[in-house]
Amino acid sequence: MQLTARTFTLELAEPFVISRSSDTESEVVQVAIRHDGQVGYGEGAPDERYGESCQSALDFFEQARPLLGDDPFALEAIEGRLAALPGQMAARCAVDGALHDLVGKLCGQPLWRLFGLQPAAPPTSYTISIDTLEGTADRARRAPGHHAIK
């Protein structure tokens, strides 16, 4: 399998404000894993609070590349080999997502079907950033359909 990675910046639709920061963009990493004419994609958002950065994720990918092997269906074995590399949960998530995407494509089936699930999106939470009372109410109104609002 061939792994390539890149970093890119996501521009947020509106500022995300919490007690320790205010962000208008997010730096993320994207992985592409190629095998047998198909490409699986995964993405992760490194978090500085956990000692992660886009550069540390890229370094993880360099170390992970030779550990992937050549059987994308050997997910448990691949994860076992990657367990030897410490930390970097965002990078691990990107690789895991890319491998699962690749397996679905190789099988010609969406992952929800392979997992025996319904095609509906899973329940998610939505975090409302710090704002004025009116701004908070407006953000809450614009967040229908979420399992939980924080």
Q: Describe it for me?
A:
There is one protein chain. This protein has 150 residues and is of the alpha+beta class. 34% of the residues lie in helices and 29% in strands. It has five helices and five strands, in the order E-E-E-H-H-H-H-E-H-E. The strands form two sheets. The chain has a three-stranded antiparallel sheet with strand order 1-2-3. Strands 4-5 form a two-stranded parallel ribbon. Helix 1 packs across helix 3. The longest helix has 19 residues, at 89-107. It is globular and about 55 Å long. The termini are far apart. The relative contact order is 0.16.
Summed up:
Helix content is 34%, strand content 29%.
Largest sheet: 3 strands, antiparallel
Principal-axes shape call: globular
Secondary structure tally: strands:
5
Total DSSP helices: 5
Strand content: 25-35%
**Radius of gyration of CA atoms, rounded to a whole number:** 18 Å
Which regions are unreliable across 5 or more consecutive residues at pLDDT < 50? none
Strand order of the largest sheet: 1-2-3
Helix content: 25-40%
> What class do helices, strands and sheet pairing give?
alpha+beta
Describe the structure using short key phrases.
150 residues; alpha+beta; 5 helices; 5 strands
Question: Which helices and strands occur, and which strands form pairs?
Answer:
Elements: E1 2-18, E2 21-35, E3 38-44, H1 54-64, H2 75-82, H3 89-107, H4 111-114, E4 125-126, H5 133-141, E5 148-149
Parallel strand pairs: 4-5
Antiparallel strand pairs: 1-2, 2-3
Helix pairs in contact: 1-3
